[in-house]
Every structure is written in C-alpha cells, then in structure tokens.
Amino acid sequence: MRASTPVTVGIGATVAVVVGAYIQAAASNPISTALSLAAVPAEYRGLIEEAGQTCPDVNPNLLAGLLYQESKFNPKATSPADAQGIAQFLPSTWEDHGIDGNGDGKRDVWDPEDAIPSAGKYLCTVAEEVKDVPGNRQNNMLAAYNAGSGKVKKYGGIPPYKETQNYVSNINAFASQGGGQSASTTQAGTAVQAAKQMLGKPYSWGGGNAKGPSTGTCCSPNGRSGQSIVGFDCSGLVLYAYAKAGISLPRTAAQQYAAAEPVKPGEARPGDLVFYGSSASTIHHVGIYIGGGWIINAPRPGTEVRYDPMDMMSDLYDVARPEPSTHKEI
Q: How far apart are CA 162 and CA 160, in angstroms?
C-alpha cells in the first residue's frame, strides 16, 4: 500500500518518524493470516528479538509468526490437546524443554518471559533433530514444532497433515513478508537468503567480498587495537549477498547508497537496504531489510552477523533498493 506522502529523511529527521512510517505502512498490508511484526504486543517485542537469535535456524520474524499462529500472542491460551500458553507447549514437552527465561527460579509455561525463550530454544532443538531430513530445513523445523520430530523423520519432511502443512505455510508467509515474482524480487530474495547463511560470522572491519568472508581487523578502523580476522563488515555483507544474486555493488555503505533507489514507506520489501547516517555523504552503516521492521547486518566490532530492529541506531537515514544502473551524487 503506497503511503499518501513520502517521509523526508536526512539531517534532523528522527528515527521514530522514519521507522514508524515504514512499519506503520507495512502493518497495513498483512500477508496471508499473519500480521506485521510491528503489531506484536509491545511487551513481547524485546523477548522475541532476543529469543529469535537463539540459533541460526531461527529469526525474530519466524518466531513472532509462530507465536501468532499458536496463540495470537495470548499468554493464557489453551487447546483441546492441553497445549498451554503463548507458545502452546504440551505439559510433557514443557517438562523436558521449558526454561527459566527470566531467572526468577520458576519455569512457568504461562509466563511469556519463560515461554518465549523456551520456544526459541525448542525450535533450535528440533532443527537439530531433523537436520538430516531431506527438503527445506526451516520447513522441517516448523513441522517438527507442530507435529513432532518423529513424524518429520517418518515422512521424510512435512507430514501429510493439513494442519501441519497450513501451519508451516502461514508462518513462512509471516517471516518472508510476501513479495511478487519479478526478477528484482527474486534477486532480493536470493540476497536475503545468502546473508542468512552468514549468520554468526564475526564482524571484521574491511572484511567481506563477492566470494564470502575475507580478512579484515576485528576491533578498529585502523586495526591498531585488533587482530586480523576473517568475517564481514556491514557493507561487505551486503556486497556478498547481492553478488550471490548476480548484482555487483560498490564496497562502502555510502557508495552502496549511491547505487540504490530510495523507496517510500509501504513499498519497502525484503532485500532493500537500510542506511544510517546524517546525510548521504556521512552514511556509516547498512543492513539488509528482512521485513516487519527487522534487518540482518554486521553491526560493529565484537559482534557477529545477526538480526536487529531497524531502530537499532538513532540516525536511520533512508531505505533504498539496489539499482546498479542509477547513481546519486554524494
């Protein structure tokens, strides 16, 4: 849905205005039975952000979609099968896999501070259990959460149950935030998937090229306080991801902005680039939008490639789509 007026971003623009405009527009365009991550109750967003990074197989959008599918974020939800709480754990599963997420000395299936971290951990557990099953690893993980790892192994993938098939489809619709089938959208999807494969790779200043992680320094722009390390910096990750999609981008974040076309609120889609700085010439960070107000990026020295909300920094400047044929003066 196109916003009636674009948001002006740049010097003096606040991150609340910029992020709010993009997320509010995204929320007005729900995909399938899912809803935008922006519509997640505020009290659960931090829990989902943290638990959504438990392992590389899980991300915040995926976990939010699962919780919506399970309970519509109702911490008191129950089912005819006696599944309980916001993440709908069966008592036996909770007994084996529930954790004390908030450190209060109790494992309470009805407490989202315990149940949401437990859901992230359990997704990682079943992902490992079905890692050798043929087919899509993420789909098999979701199917295992719904029907059990044994059923996924028995049928060599998603079991032939309508409930489980719809469950996987609906959560994937949420996590991907939709998109058409044009070549540019396909390339953007390829870039997002390539970036996801690099989750957990260390930050390395100057690291990353079209072939993958490369040697940079771990801790400072000039390398005086760091050692050589193989990994990515923010623009190196973007360069690599889009190279996998057949698009050649320049090396730095500011140069990548110059090779991209700004998009209006409501038109951002997975694969678009999110830039931070006070002006086009002072852009210092870039991430890849994955939908619902979240990006994948290599944030800073001492971190790894990971998921973060768009408002991770206070100087969000613009969202732009890679267009190798365009150029803006910086």
A: 6
Give, for 147, the enclosing helix (H) or strand (E).
helix 137-147
Residues 197, 266: one domain? yes
- Of 137, 161, 176, the position where a domain reaches its end is 176
Q: Is 156 exposed, middle or buried (0-12, 13-18, 19+ CB in 10 A)?
A: exposed
Q: How many structural domains compose the chain? A: 2
Handedness of CA 143, 145, 147, 151 (dihedral sign): positive
CA-based end-to-end distance of the chain = 30
User: Which pLDDT tens digit goes with each residue over 85-135?
Assistant: 999 999 999 999 999 999 999 999 999 999 999 999 999 999 999 999 998
Contact 40, 294 (CB under 8 A): no
Strands 273-276 and 285-291: antiparallel
CA distance 215 to 44: 38
Structure-block tokens of residue 324: 């190798």
- For residue 261, being part of any structural domain is answered with yes
CA 322 to the chain's CA centroid: 19
CATH number of the domain encompassing residue 116: 1.10.530.10
Q: How deeply is 46 buried, as exposed, middle or buried, from its count of CB atoms within 10 A (0-12, 13-18, 19+)?
A: exposed
* Structure confidence by residue, pLDDT tens digits, 215-225: 988 765 554 55
Residues 267 and 210 in one domain: yes
Kindly report the pTM of this predicted structure: 0.51
Rounded to 5°, the CA angle 64-1-296 comes to 40
> Which residues form the domain of 140?
32-176
